[in-house]
Design a protein that fits this description.
Blueprint: H1 3-6, H2 19-38, H3 48-61, H4 73-86, H5 90-129, H6 132-137, H7 144-161, H8 167-185, H9 195-204, H10 206-209, H11 214-235, H12 240-248, H13 254-259, H14 264-267, H15 269-275, H16 288-298, H17 309-323, E1 326-329, E2 332-335, H18 347-362, H19 366-405, E3 413-415, H20 417-423, H21 429-432, E4 435-437, H22 443-451, E5 457-460, E6 485-491, E7 506-511
Parallel strand pairs: 3-4, 3-5
Antiparallel strand pairs: 1-2, 5-7, 6-7
Helix pairs in contact: 2-5, 4-5, 5-7, 5-18, 5-19, 7-8, 7-9, 8-11, 9-17, 16-18, 17-18, 18-19, 19-20
Length: 532
């Protein structure tokens, strides 16, 4: 009998996710998103007014502003669809991000299974569900979640392609990796750093991938060439996405030296966020970074060596890329603005690496590993709910204030600028109600402004944006001349003590002092966002 007669046909690899896996994914997504939605924050971050104004121009005027949001089509095209269908309101703005947050559970689980089998998938899924930063920011206007997800998906497709024995599935996965890389870039230009771990994966698996790499580079070349062509057509700059980000961060010219000069606190910001408690006593990443460092140090002595060089390189490269977002200009070093939500890209590689060590630990000490995962989940949920509570309560304060003010007759409203920026999301409210912005930092100046008031409404107390908002700008009840203002509505947060980020309950007051025959138009708020 010939060899051909006895040889077995080459069969494709089974799918990564089987029916049982989809049940686990459904359970993790339901629990994870259910808890996140229970602590829903919504619209209210400092940059949200910029994203709102961009989308207002797209939907209302059909005009795409040439700023650092224009190239982020993965965010604004789905958002344009949802806002056209359901209006320029809070939930349509947030829906694409919420959908991405839900899909993230599938990507994390699949990546965990590709590296460590089903135990790794379950551990990664549980740790991700309890990760404080994702828990709190998944229900806010955070396109960074999309950048993290597509970056992970691109590398996952490459690693899966390297395991395929048939050329067609391998080429298909490489094409998907190219498309996911392009989508990640169009979420945030910093995703370009993923080229390093992807190219390393090509080199490490070159025996399997070399003949089919055209399936990655051909679609990637077409897609990125299209991006460059569109950029040049509209701006005259093929590197417009990168240039717009540098401009938006203020990293060039005298303004960079004035506002973004590199200092020691700025340089060490990422290290503090990773390993130390924040200003309110919470850990953004739970104890995952500490555990990863501990495993990396003691792992070799315990013979715990989960092999994931691409994931280690992913973590290191992304961290270094963000840490050294530093440039020399005007004779000094300047650094881009460091926002904690930008560090969402650390979550995937961090959780995958910790999961690998835990799975390796479980091969010898199964029960202790399972107990440790439970403890990590409980600690993560504790920190996550604490983080999310601050924005949930603060954003709900502004939401309730603006919705209540929208029911009142058109009269001047006295408040800090943060109330005005939230009210702008309500259709027509940014132009219907005339706002007078109270002086930001000096209580005596706010009191003097209220003494000169001749009518309208006043908002005091409540929460604002707790991380980068102006807590000192919040008008306080003690600053009110009580002979001219009476309490109209109070919004207490039941059972919650007054905190640093919410110095007193939100209250709305009505002017009852001497009234003139007509109201002068409200003075434009200096520095406040202009109506589109």
């Amino acid at each position: 009998m010939s060899d051909a007669a006895v040889s077995e046909p080459v069969r494709p690899r089974p799918p990564l996710l089987e029916a049982r896996d989809w049940l686990y994914i459904a359970a993790l997504t339901t629990v994870g998103m259910g808890l996140r939605l229970a602590y829903f924050s919504g619209y209210g971050l400092g940059d949200d007014i910029v994203l709102r104004n961009f989308m207002f121009n797209v939907v209302t005027h059909g005009n795409v502003l040439h700023d650092n949001l224009a190239y982020r089509v993965v965010w604004w095209i789905p958002t344009a669809i949802t806002t056209r269908l359901w209006g320029l309101r809070e939930l349509p703005y947030l829906l694409p991000v919420l959908i991405s947050a839900a899909c993230s559970f599938t990507v994390v689980y699949a990546f965990g299974k590709a590296l460590w089998g089903r135990p790794g998938a379950l551990v990664a899924g549980v740790l991700f569900a309890a990760c404080p930063l994702d828990f709190a920011w998944a229900t806010m206007l955070t396109p960074d979640l999309q950048a993290s997800m597509f970056s992970a998906l691109a590398l996952l497709c490459v690693l899966r392609a390297a395991e395929q024995v048939l050329p067609f599935p391998r080429r298909r996965l490489l094409a998907w990796a190219a498309f996911a890389s392009w989508l990640a870039f169009h979420c945030k230009v910093s995703s370009a750093a993923m080229a390093v771990p992807i190219l390393y994966a090509f080199w490490r698996h070159r025996r399997m991938l070399t003949a089919d790499l055209w399936a990655f580079f051909l679609p990637a070349g077409v897609l990125f060439a299209g991006t460059a062509a569109v950029s040049f057509a509209f701006t005259g700059d093929v590197f417009a996405p990168y240039s717009s980000e540098i401009s938006a961060q203020g990293l060039s010219g005298p303004v960079a030296v004035k506002f973004h000069k590199l200092t020691e606190p700025v340089f060490w910001a990422y290290f503090r966020w990773l390993f130390y408690r924040n200003q309110y006593g919470d850990l953004f990443y739970s104890v995952y970074p500490h555990l990863l460092v501990l495993f990396a140090v003691v792992g070799p002595f315990l013979r715990l060596r989960p092999r994931a060089p691409e994931v280690w390189l992913w973590m290191v490269v992304i961290f270094l890329f963000m840490q050294f977002n530093i440039q020399w200009t005007e004779g000094t070093w300047v650094a881009g603005f460091r926002n904690v939500r930008h560090t969402h890209v650390f979550i995937y590689p961090m959780i995958l690496l910790v999961s690998g060590y835990l799975v390796a630990l479980g091969t010898r000490w199964r029960r202790p590993m399972q107990a440790l995962v439970v403890v990590l989940a409980l600690v993560g949920l504790w920190q996550g709910t604490s983080l999310a509570t601050k924005t949930r309560v603060s954003f709900e304060d502004r939401r309730r204030a603006c919705h209540f003010l929208a029911t009142l007759p058109k009269l001047p409203i006295y408040s800090d600028f943060q109330i005005r920026t939230w009210c702008a999301i309500l259709p027509g409210e940014d132009v219907r109600q005339p706002f007078t912005e109270l002086p930001s930092f000096v209580a005596a100046e706010r009191r003097a402004t209220l003494e000169r008031a001749i009518g309208g409404y006043l908002v005091t107390g409540g929460g604002r944006e707790p991380w980068y908002g102006c807590i000192d700008c919040i008008p306080r009840e003690a600053e009110i001349p009580k002979d001219k203002w009476k309490l109209l509505k109070e919004f207490p947060e039941e059972g919650r003590p007054i905190a640093v980020w919410r110095p007193e309950p939100l209250k709305i007051w009505e002017y009852v002092g001497p009234k003139p025959q007509t109201f002068p138009s409200a003075q434009a708020a200096p520095g406040a966002p202009a109506s589109p």
